[in-house]
Structure formats: structure tokens, C-alpha cells
Amino acid sequence: MKQLFSIAFFFLFSLSWAQVKSPEEYLGHQVGAKITPHWKLLEYYKYVASQVPDKIKFEQYGTSVEGRPLYAFFISSEKNIARLEEIRLNNLRLAKLTEGDPTLSDMPAIVWMSNNVHGNETSSAEASMMTLYQLVNPNNAKTKAALANTLIVIDPCLNPDGTERYNNWQNGVLGTQFYPDLYAREHQEPWPGGRINHYYFDLNRDWAWQTQVESEQRLALYNKWLPHIHVDFHEQGVNSPYYFPPAAEPFHEVITPWQREFQGTIGKHNAQYFDQQGWLYFTKERFDLFYPSYGDTYPIYSGAIGMTYEKAGNGSAGLGIYTSDKDTLTLVDRALQHHASGLNVVEVVSGHADKVVAEFKKFHTDAVEGRLSSYHSYILKYEPKHELKIRALLQLLDKNKIQYYSASGAVKGLDYFSKRNESYTIKNRDVVIPGNQSKAALVRVLFEPEAKLTDSVTYDITAWSLPYVYGVPALASTGKVAKSADYKLPTVSNTVIDGFGYAFKWNGFASAQLLAALLKEKVSVKTSEIAFKLNGEEFPSGSVILMAGANKNIDFKKIVKQQADKFAVTLHPINSGIVDGAKDLGSSDVKSVKAPKVMMLAGEEQRALNVGEVWHYFDRQLEYPIVLVNPKNISRVKWDEIDVFIMPTGNYSFLKEKAQSEAFANWIRGGGKVIAIGNAVNQVSSQGWSNIKAVKQDSVAKAKESPLRAYADRERDALKEYTAGAIYKVDFDKTHPLFFGTDNYFTLKESANLFQYFTDNKGWNVGYIKENSLMSGFVGQNLSKQMKNGLVFGTESVGAGTVIYLVDNVLFRNFWESGKLLMANAVFLVN
Ligand SMILES: [Zn+2]
């Protein structure tokens, strides 16, 4: 027996010498029989690359939050790999992003495969090892032929931090065999789960916004390449079969006939293969193409065929699990199916490579010639008070390779805020974003005042038009506006001189970032609740005053200059405590801002995505400390040390416990500040000390409907009561600190949640929705009637404390720019 084993071993060993080891040989087990750790996944990729260096090149394009490397592997024929940079540049010429004439002959189709954007959907990374191996296996005639006219880019793992959170847990609870019973602990993934990244963000909602470093670094590489095909591998619930394209309605209307058609071509080919294997699947359902920040839509709006593939699985599936029809779904099978889909895509694309390249070129030719635009120009109206918001918006455009410029002349167009057509003369610092450019489709989707859905069943928000998100006045014009010059706002470099001190204006999130930085540096800071004038300059309410005399113990000038320059905030010198017009700097309306200690609960009761929004906002955007406490440990909190308690959407069971809720109420009465967001407002409203009350939903509209309805219409009927997320104009009290620095606010309403106005001086009605306030997005007809005359942002005093109610999420996916200032106001300025 021993001898036999040695002979067999020698045979295998010598075979391995002759060719690259398959993942099975390399790992020592069938792919999917165990979970491959991230380091080992990369080790296999690098091993294969080292064996066939003429066919594979790779680069580290970034690092995850927790320090894990992010890689892209480029696989093609020796000939293509030798001229990789030439292919890339030629492709950018096809995409009209670089000057020069592109060549169509000898241009390979570029297929990009993304794995594990959701870290606990682990079968795609496992499958990708088999795909990599088959792509370079000289005995595979199909892939060998495909590499001649196809360049494949594989990102083995987009979300290594989430992946390793899942892998470490899963490998830690597995023994020598798996147990397929759903109730076994290996199927009960602990909070917050591996789907999301370090800051609990869903990276498959972040492509356009790039708030997360993984997305930002990946998109920098992606936009350097702009592949023709993008495949995004996922997993869905364990009882679903396999999903592949074509996608479901609604499609955004900018999606071209070719993009629809080729999804169908690829889908048909995949269906044939799945039929042969007897594998079940569905298409055209559930996964729509509308919201621009997915791994299918973003590539589509950038000219590619973007596609989502979903195998049954995800966090609960483990190595094997019983499905409802008593089958056992194994990781081995999940990986095999994704592997099959991956190879199918390569085969179909290779079979149509010339057409794929030609259509990519056509998309971008149409784009620059204005055939993909609805409006041909978007104009951001510059005013000094909007400069910080415009700077933030330009950063987003830069990340997405969207072009903009300066121009002059008269235009007609639709004003976003008034929704009226107007004539307008373009001014010196206005920004013009041409609708006709390489990224025309993306520009249209991000800027269109009202996006048109071909169908209204979508499971994500339906409005994100950037002038509303940033609160920047803008115009959408069907006229073309020619470029007069590159657009550039001057770099801010403050001159600091000895004197009384400095003031800076409060008019954007950057003002709040500067305030947070100064507080961290122990700078003594004051803010004025009323507007004032200094040397002819107007300072709006909330503006910050820094007195030299109060900051003698620190390197005041150096700190102030460094930080103000960093955030591009202009410092204005103050010569004396006397100001023109309003009250002087010694007035009681000028208040010291203390550095508050901020806390939030983060644990199984909370919704990880919402905890993540607040955590990332403080840690990486405001760059201000926040203590995260597990709800289990709330009895250990030293409330007298806490100044601000933030309650994102989640469940707060301590409010129902007598001792804990009393300690909490006493803390508020003693001067504590609560910021309740989303459904936390509803929970707080049930406390005895709270005076806020939800608006009762109107049942009249519903009752008037005919009781006779068709069963098949049930999904569409339900829509009448539904919004996935639409933009409403908020009317607000400009004198209240919650809205300092804001002159337009548009809120994302994800539900019908509205509250009654405070009466009898019980609280402040700060932001509210009046009638006809819907600006953009889909709202069901019944719900739409109810969405009026209600409070969305309010405050009330409880003893010496303050409760701030943010009924709508102001930090949505951390890209709702104007909401970030609102949150900073709540933390620092509202008292
Ligand atoms: Zn997924």
C-alpha cells in the first residue's frame, strides 16, 4: 500500500513539473472543500503568474482599510501581454478619453471579472482560481484560442476585509466535516457579517461615490482601463437557483440597444451550458439596471456590458447546507457554477471580439457627439458661499473621469431648485459639465433632474441627482456650451499674521472638518449664532472665530494655517472685537464650542450599514473621535463623561428597561445631547420625556380603491404604498443652528416616515416637507398623497439637554454631501 502510494505520488508530482498545478493540486483538496484564506488565494494567483509570466501580468492597485493588498491580474496571449500598455492606451483612444487615432485591428476585447465584492459570498473567489488555471492551461483549446483576441482582467477579491471576517469565522467554527443543518452554528454568521467592508459599507453600492478606499483605488484602475465587459459575481439566498443576464427591468433609458442585446447573447450561451448540466437558473428578474453605483450599472454607464451573476449561497451557506427541497448545496457546486459562467463569458466575448470592440468605440463616439445626452450641458452656478460644496462636487467628478470646464454666454435651461425654465448668463466661476463627453451616459445618470424608469419595481433609491445631493444651484440645458478654458478653483494658501485672531465662514462640510480638526488640536473656538460683517465681508450664522489671546498655549498660527489650507477654507484676519452691523465678538450670541465626547451603540441590535455610515463619517470624513459601545455593555457606560449620543437606525432595547432608560433620561435632563436618526426617532418618541409624534397615515385613499383586484397585479399594487428613495425639498428655519451654512436642503425619503409639528413651544420645527415638494424619484401614488405637511428635522429641550430628531438619514451611504454638514451642526452647534 505504501509503495503504491509512493508510485502514484511520483506520477502526480512529475505531471506537475510538466505543467502548472491546478488549484486542486496546489491546495491539496477539491476547490470549495475548504475555505481558502485571502493570503492563500493570492499565493495561488502569484504562483500561476510565476509559472506563465508571458501570459500573466499583475499589479497591486491598492490596500484595504485593514491593510490587505488589492490586486488585478491581466491574462492574455504572450503577444497581448507583451503590449499591455499599448492596448490600454489604444482603448482609452477608443473611449475618447485620450487624444489620438485608435486602431481597431488587433485590439482584443477586454473582460474584467470582479470577485467577492461581498466578502461572505465566497464561491466566486474560489471559482476564480479554476478560471485562472483554465485560462492558461495549454490543453484547453477553447481558452487558448480565446486569449488571442481577449484580455481578461481578474480581481480575485474586491473586499478582502469582509472576506477575511467571514473566512476567519467560518474556518474557526468548522471541524473535520460540515453539518448542513441550518441551525448549526456554522450557518449563523455573527454580526456584522462579512458582506460589508471594514466600515460596514456595501461596496456594491459605492462604485460612483467611492467613499470607501477599496472602491476609490479600484475605480482609479478601472477608469485607466475601461473594460468592454464587466462581470460581477455574487451569491443570493440558499434556496434561489442561479441568476445571470439579461437583467430585469427597470433599465435606465440611456442603456443602448447593443448593451441589452449582448447581455441576451451571453445569457443564451450560459443557458445552453446550464441546460446541459441540468442546472436551474432564472433571468430578467429581480436584478435591475438603474441605480448607478452597482458593479453592473456603473460599467454600463461607462460603455461596458456590465453583468451581475448570482449563485445560491452567501453567509449562511458554509461548506454545505440543506435547501428547502432537501438538496445539499455545497461550496464545491457553487464554485463550479461561477467557474462555468466565467469561462462562458470569455468564450462568447472571444467569438464576438471584433463586434464588442467596435460597439465600445461606437458607444463613446455617440457619447462625445451628444447622442447619449438628454440635456447637453449642466451648469453649476458659482457663488462664494457655495464654493466648498462645488469643490466637493468637483472631487467626485474627477474620481469618475467626468470632464468640466469654464464657459461664457447666455443659455436657457431648467433650474433644478425652482423646476422652472429660465434664461441665464454663464459667469466666470460657473462650472459647465458637457453632456457630450466620453462619460456622457454616467453624466446623464448622475445629473438628470428626473431619471426616467422604464418600470418602477426597483429595490434601490430612484433619485440621486447631484445638485440636490450637494445643495448646489444648477441648470440643465439642452443647448451645447463651448469650452472657453479649463476650470480650476485657486488653491487656498492662507497668510497668517499676528493680530487679534481669525474668522472663517460656515458654509460647507469643509468648514465643519476644519472645526473638528481645530478642536482635536485643542484650539479654543467660538461660533456666532448670528450673521456678522468684518471688513466688508459677510459672515453667515455659525461662522467660527479664533482669538489669538485665548490660544496662547499652543502654536496657534501654525496649526490654524495648516488645517485651514488642508480643507481649502479661507481665513479672514480680525483686527478687533468690534464688528460692523451686528453684535460684537463679546456678545452672548458668540459661544465657545467645546470638543464633545461622542458615543454610539454598535452591536447585534443595530443595523450594521447604518452604524457604518456614522462610524465612517466620524472616523474618516469628519476625522473626529467617536466611541462605539456594544449594547450589551450599556450599563457600564459612564454617562457623565458623554456629551453626544448618536442613535442610527436600529433597535434600542435599553429604552424598554427601567433602570437603563431612567439613567439615560437623567443624563439628557442633566445636559446630554441625543441625535436620533431614522427609526430611532420612532423609538425615542415612545419615551415619556419625548414630545415628538408620528403623523398618522391616511387610510382614506386606500379605502376608496376597488376591493376587486387581480392576483397577478399584487406586486404593482403594493407599489402604490412604496418608495425606495426619492428626493424631497425641505423647507427649514434658517435661523436654527441645525441648518447653519445651508441655503438649500433636499432630503432622501426612503419611507413615509413623517412627524407632526411641535406645538405649544414643545420643540423646534426646524425642517419640514410642505405640499408638492417631490423633486425627483419614484413615489407610489397613495404614498405620494401622504407625503406633505410633516416634520423631518426637529429638536426639543429635555431639562438641560437636547434631543435632535433626524427622521431622514442625512448620512446615506456617506455621499449625501449636504447632510454631512447637517450632522456636524447637530454635533457641534445645536444646543
Ligand atoms: Zn452580492
TrEMBL record:
Active-site residue list: E369
GO molecular function, one term: zinc ion binding
Signal peptide stretch: 1-18
One GO process term, biological-process aspect: proteolysis
Domain Peptidase M14: 34-397
Names of required cofactors: Zn(2+)
Keyword hit for Phosphoprotein: no
Database matches in CDD domains: M14-like
Keywords annotated in UniProt: Carboxypeptidase, Hydrolase, Metalloprotease, Protease, Signal, Zinc
One Pfam family of this chain: Peptidase_M14
Top-level taxon in the UniProt lineage: Bacteria
The keyword Acetylation belongs to this UniProt entry's keyword annotation: no
Any one of the GO CC terms: extracellular space
Transmembrane segments: none
Family, similarity comment: Belongs to the peptidase M14 family.
Protein name: Zinc carboxypeptidase
Organism the protein comes from: Sphingobacterium wenxiniae
Lineage: Bacteria, Pseudomonadati, Bacteroidota, Sphingobacteriia, Sphingobacteriales
